[in-house]
Amino acid sequence: AELIGQTPSTFDLFAFEDRFPTMYSESRNTVVKQEAAKYNRMIQALQYQLPLFRRAVKGFVVMTEDLESVGKGLFFNVVPEAVDFFNLWFDKGHPINFWVSGLFFPQAFFTAVMQNFARSNKYAIDRIDFDVLVKDNWALDGADIPEAPPSGVYMWGMFLEGCRWCEQSHFLVPSNPKQLFVQFPVVWFKPELDWKGKKGVYPCPVYKVLSRKGTLSTTGHSTNFVRDMMIPAKEHPDHWIRAGVAAFLALKY
Questions:
Q1: Which of 55, 124, 134, 189 has the fewest Cβ atoms within 10 Å of its own Cβ atom?
Q2: Which helix (H) or strand (E) holds 82?
Q3: Distance set, CA 16 to CA 26, 58, 130, 170 (Å)
Q4: Collapsing DSSP states into helix, strand and coil, what is residue 116?
């Protein structure tokens, strides 16, 4: 009963429309409204499934995979954290840094960031790609970032598997013993025109969850793979490929 009472309320989508109107110069407005609508559907599903979950825990009904995922989401506090993130986004406007793990569809957000850069500079968006700058001088949650970047976006909340980031050498290095996952520092995704890449990097794949598999959705994007992220590394990329190095937005399957 306590969990049911603590279930977050749905977002007021009309208020989101007023707060973030559709604008040519700010594509992120569209993304935040789409994300709020997706969270509404999830919250409504929670409100329906929580009473069933209580009964399943007591053994009155079968514990299905969907009900188990509800329990895991509550246990890891994923839903309340995400709701708090979007409430803050609504109250204070676009943040100076973004918790990428809280996004349902991060691919759309990255596209919106590139679109803002392309439109403000009158470039074709298909000529834009991201350079990646690891900002390991800031807190892992970006709490001490003083201001938004001049272009692009600061993102945090990713985890590395198969290696770790060294704040002294500013390169990827082997994992510490018995440490499967480490949180990655804040990353500046900096849009560049006609980006050709750079040497001394590992094209690290970024996934939403640990399973490293997904299907193509109707948007043409994977349900799991997000994008590659060029991370500075001294070794040849093959070294990190053999180590299975990847980044994840959430440590769940």
A1: 124
A2: helix 78-92
A3: 14, 39, 28, 40
A4: helix
Note the pLDDT tens digit of each residue in 119-173. Answer: 999 999 999 999 999 999 999 999 999 999 999 999 999 999 999 999 999 999 9
3-class DSSP assignment, residue 61:
coil
For the chain, where are the E strands, in sequence order? 98-99, 128-135, 153-156, 159-161, 164-166, 171-173, 181-183, 186-193, 201-207, 225-232, 246-248
**Distances, alpha carbon 70 to alpha carbons 44, 45, 73, 151, in Å:** 12, 9, 5, 38
Tell me the pLDDT tens digit for each residue of 9-46: 899 999 999 999 999 999 999 999 999 999 998 888 88
pLDDT value of position 223 = 87
Share of the chain above pLDDT 70, in %: 93
> Cα(165)–Cα(175) distance, rounded to whole angstroms?
9
C-alpha angle with apex 96: 94 to 101, nearest 5 degrees? 80
Q: What are phi and psi of 100, to 5 degrees?
A: -65, -30
CB 176 within 8 A of CB 121: no
CA 215/CA 148 separation, integer angstroms: 34
Q: How confident is the model over 220-233, as a mean pLDDT?
A: 92
Task: Give the amino acid at 207.
Answer: Y
